[in-house]
C-alpha cells in the first residue's frame, strides 16, 4: 500500500496521483471511443449494400445516337453510343475552355461508347440527355451544362461527370465496377 | 421583478409544494409571470409556435402508428393513411400544413425580435437558444419531408445530403455515411424516420431552456426600454393569457383554412409521384420556408482562386454551401454585431429602414429560390445573398457606431417624451 511519502512529490516533481489521473483519463477516453465507434459506424453502408457492387451490360441493342441508363450501386449510369459528329465536337474543344480540363480520349476506352455516372457533380441530380447549350447533358436542378463528353462547361457543378471503373468483356459487353 | 404569488390551498397542495413544487413552477411561468404591460400582437407568436409544436408532436405520434418507413412501402403507407385510416386524411393534412404554420409563427417571432432588438443584452442567450431551435426545426422539417418518399422527398434529400460532399477530402465519405449506401435509399429513409421522431423532443428541451432564459430577464417590449418597476408590468394571467388566446383563435382559423380548403397549396404536386432514383424532376424546389436559403445556396456560380493561375482555392459548390450555412450561423453573432444600446427600431431612424430592406431582401431571395436558375434569377440571387450577409456583417456594425437614435421615453408607464413636448402615446 502507498505510504504518505510515496504520494508526495518525487525528484522530478511528478506525483503518484498525477500518474493515476492521466492513466484513468486515458483509459476512459479509449473505453468511451470503443463504445461510441460502433454507434457511428453502423450508419456506413452495410455488407449487403456493399455486395451489390458490379453490373454487367449488353451493349448490342444500343443504336448509334441512342443512350440507355443502367443502375450500378443504386446510381444511374449513362451509356451513350455516340455519333461521329459528337465525338468530333468533343475532341475539337480546346482544353483551356474547360473548367475541369480533361481530353475526350481520357474519358473513353472506345470513342463511340461514353460511359459515366449519371449524377450531376453539383448536388446529385440526374442530368437530362441531349439538352443544354453544348449538346450533351443539362442538369435541371441548378442549371449545369455538360458537353458531348460529359464535361462541365457552364453552371455551378465543379467537375466533369464521373467515369466509373469498367472493362469491355468483349465487343458487346461491359462490366461496371 | 419576480412576484411569486403562489399560495397553495388545501392539504394535498401544501404537501406537494413541500416535496415537488411543480405547481409553483407552472404558476410562476404561466400565471404570475410579470410581463411588460405594453406588448403588442407581434408578441403572440412565441406561444403560438409552442402550441404548433404540441400539435405537430401529437399528430406525428399518431401518424407514426400507421406509417411504414421501408422504401418499398413508405409511399403506399402514406396513401393508406389518406384513404383508409379513420380521419387519417385530417391528421396528415394537419401535420403537413402544421410544418408550414410552425415556420410562419417562428419567422414572425424572429423578425419581431429583429425589429424590437430582443436579441440585445441582457437577452443574448435567449436569442442564441432560439437560433438553436430554428436549426433543429430545419433539420426536423427536412427529414419529415423525405418520409412520404415521393419525387420531391427523394430529390430534396439527394440535393441536401450532397451539400456535405462539398467538404474537402472527407466529403464523399461523410455523404456515404449519411446515406448508408451509394445513394439515398432504404437505409437513408429509415434513419431519417428515427431522427424525425427524436428531434422534436430535443426541441422541447431547448424550448424549456429558451423559456427559462426569457423568465430570467423578462420579456422585451415595443419600446425596447427596461421595466422600471411594478407599475410597468401586469401578470401574465389573465392579461396575456387572454391576448394570446385571441391570437391563437385567429391563427387556428388561418391554419384551418389551409387544412380544409387548400391542403396541398403549400406542398408540391411532384411529391404525389413515387420516388424514382433514375429520373430527376424538371424543377426541384424545397418547401417554401427553405426557399431563401436555397437561393443563397445556388447564388454563387464562380470559383475563387489565385488570379492568373488555375489554382482553385474554393470552388463554386463549396462557396454556395458556406454562404448558406453562414446566412444562418451569422444569427448567433448578431447580439455582438449590432452593438447599438437602443433596442427598438422605433427609436432608430436608419435601422428601421435597414430592417425593412432586409425583410424585402429575404422575400426576394425566397422568390428567386422558387424560380429556375435562368435569365435574371442568378444575378438577383447573388445580389440578394451579398446584401443579406452585408446587412449583418457591415451595415449593423456601421449603424451601431454612426446612427443617432431618437430620445428614449422615460418609462413604459410614461412613454411621452417630455424634452420635446411631443405626445407619443403608446397604444
Uncertain parts of chain B: 421-427
Largest sheet of chain B: 2 strands, antiparallel
CATH overall fold name of chain B: Cytochrome Bc1 Complex, Chain C
Total tally of structural domains of chain A: 2
Structural class of chain A: alpha+beta
Portion in beta strands of chain B: under 5%
Radius of gyration of chain A: 28 Å
Strand percentage of chain A: 25-35%
The CATH architecture assignment of the largest domain in chain A turns out to be 3-layer Sandwich
| H/E element order of chain B | HHEHHHHHHHEHHEEHHH
pLDDT under 50 segments of chain A (min length 5)? 1-5
Looking at how many chains there are and whether they match, the oligomeric state comes to heterodimer
Instruction: Characterize the main sheet of chain A.
Output: 4 strands, antiparallel
How many helical stretches of chain B? 14
Query: What global shape of chain B is seen?
Result: globular
CATH fold group of the largest domain in chain A:
Rieske Iron-sulfur Protein
Number of strands of chain A: 10
How many E strands of chain B?
4
Which overall shape of chain A is indicated by the principal axes computed on the Cα atoms? Answer: elongated
Amino acid at each position: 500500500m502507498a505510504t504518505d511519502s510515496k504520494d508526495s512529490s518525487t525528484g522530478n516533481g511528478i506525483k503518484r496521483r498525477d500518474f493515476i489521473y492521466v492513466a484513468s483519463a486515458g483509459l476512459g477516453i479509449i473505453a468511451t471511443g470503443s463504445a461510441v465507434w460502433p454507434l457511428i459506424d453502423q450508419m456506413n453502408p452495410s455488407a449487403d449494400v456493399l455486395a451489390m457492387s458490379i453490373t454487367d451490360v449488353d451493349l448490342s441493342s444500343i443504336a448509334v445516337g441512342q443512350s440507355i441508363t443502367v443502375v450500378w450501386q443504386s446510381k444511374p449510369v449513362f451509356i451513350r453510343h455516340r455519333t461521329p459528329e459528337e465525338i468530333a465536337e468533343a475532341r475539337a474543344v480546346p482544353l483551356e475552355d474547360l473548367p475541369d480540363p480533361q481530353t475526350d480520349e481520357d474519358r473513353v476506352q472506345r470513342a463511340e461508347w461514353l460511359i459515366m455516372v449519371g449524377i450531376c457533380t453539383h448536388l446529385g441530380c440526374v442530368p437530362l440527355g441531349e439538352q443544354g447549350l453544348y449538346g450533351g447533358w443539362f442538369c435541371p436542378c441548378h442549371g449545369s451544362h455538360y458537353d458531348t463528353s460529359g464535361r462541365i462547361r457552364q453552371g455551378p457543378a465543379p467537375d466533369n461527370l464521373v467515369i466509373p471503373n469498367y472493362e469491355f468483356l468483349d465487343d458487346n459487353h461491359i462490366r461496371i465496377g | 421583478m419576480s412576484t411569486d404569488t403562489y399560495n397553495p390551498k388545501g392539504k394535498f397542495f401544501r404537501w406537494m409544494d413541500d416535496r415537488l413544487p411543480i405547481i409553483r413552477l407552472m404558476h410562476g411561468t404561466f400565471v404570475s409571470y410579470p410581463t411588460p404591460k405594453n406588448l403588442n400582437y407581434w408578441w403572440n407568436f412565441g406561444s403560438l409556435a409552442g402550441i404548433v409544436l404540441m400539435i405537430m408532436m401529437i399528430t406525428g405520434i399518431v401518424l407514426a402508428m400507421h406509417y411504414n418507413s421501408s422504401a418499398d412501402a413508405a409511399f403506399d403507407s402514406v396513401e393508406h393513411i389518406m384513404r383508409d385510416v379513420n380521419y387519417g386524411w385530417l391528421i396528415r393534412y394537419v401535420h403537413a400544413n402544421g410544418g408550414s404554420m410552425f415556420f410562419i409563427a417562428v419567422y414572425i417571432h424572429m423578425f419581431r425580435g429583429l425589429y424590437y432588438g430582443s436579441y440585445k443584452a441582457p437577452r443574448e442567450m435567449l436569442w442564441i437558444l432560439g437560433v438553436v431551435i430554428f436549426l433543429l426545426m430545419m433539420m426536423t422539417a427536412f427529414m419529415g419531408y423525405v418520409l412520404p418518399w415521393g419525387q420531391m422527398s427523394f430529390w430534396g434529400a439527394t440535393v441536401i445530403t450532397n451539400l456535405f460532399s462539398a467538404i474537402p477530402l472527407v466529403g464523399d465519405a461523410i455523404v456515404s455515411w449519411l446515406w448508408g449506401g451509394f445513394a439515398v435509399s432504404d437505409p437513408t429513409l429509415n434513419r431519417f424516420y428515427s431522427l424525425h421522431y427524436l428531434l422534436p423532443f430535443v426541441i422541447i428541451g431547448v424550448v424549456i431552456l429558451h423559456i427559462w432564459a426569457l423568465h430570467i430577464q423578462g420579456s422585451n417590449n415595443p419600446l425596447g426600454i427596461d421595466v422600471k418597476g411594478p407599475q410597468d408590468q401586469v401578470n401574465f394571467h389573465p392579461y396575456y393569457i387572454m391576448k394570446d388566446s385571441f391570437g391563437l383563435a385567429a391563427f387556428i382559423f388561418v391554419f384551418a383554412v389551409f387544412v380544409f380548403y387548400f391542403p396541398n397549396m403549400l406542398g408540391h404536386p411532384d411529391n404525389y409521384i413515387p420516388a424514382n432514383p433514375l429520373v430527376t424532376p424538371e424543377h426541384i424546389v424545397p418547401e417554401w420556408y427553405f426557399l431563401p436559403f436555397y437561393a443563397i445556396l445556388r447564388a454563387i456560380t464562380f470559383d475563387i482562386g489565385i488570379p492568373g493561375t488555375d489554382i482553385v482555392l474554393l470552388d463554386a459548390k463549396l462557396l454556395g454551401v458556406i454562404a448558406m450555412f453562414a446566412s444562418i450561423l451569422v444569427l448567433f453573432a448578431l447580439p455582438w454585431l449590432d452593438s447599438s444600446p437602443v433596442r427598438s427600431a422605433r427609436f432608430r431612424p436608419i435601422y428601421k429602414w435597414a430592417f425593412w430592406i432586409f425583410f424585402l431582401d429575404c422575400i426576394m431571395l425566397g422568390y428567386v429560390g422558387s424560380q429556375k436558375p435562368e435569365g435574371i434569377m442568378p444575378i438577383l440571387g447573388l445580389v440578394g445573398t451579398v446584401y443579406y450577409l452585408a446587412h449583418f456583417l457591415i451595415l449593423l456594425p456601421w449603424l451601431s457606431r454612426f446612427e443617432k437614435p431618437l430620445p428614449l421615453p422615460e418609462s413604459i408607464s410614461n412613454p411621452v417624451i417630455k424634452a420635446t413636448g411631443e405626445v407619443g402615446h403608446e397604444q
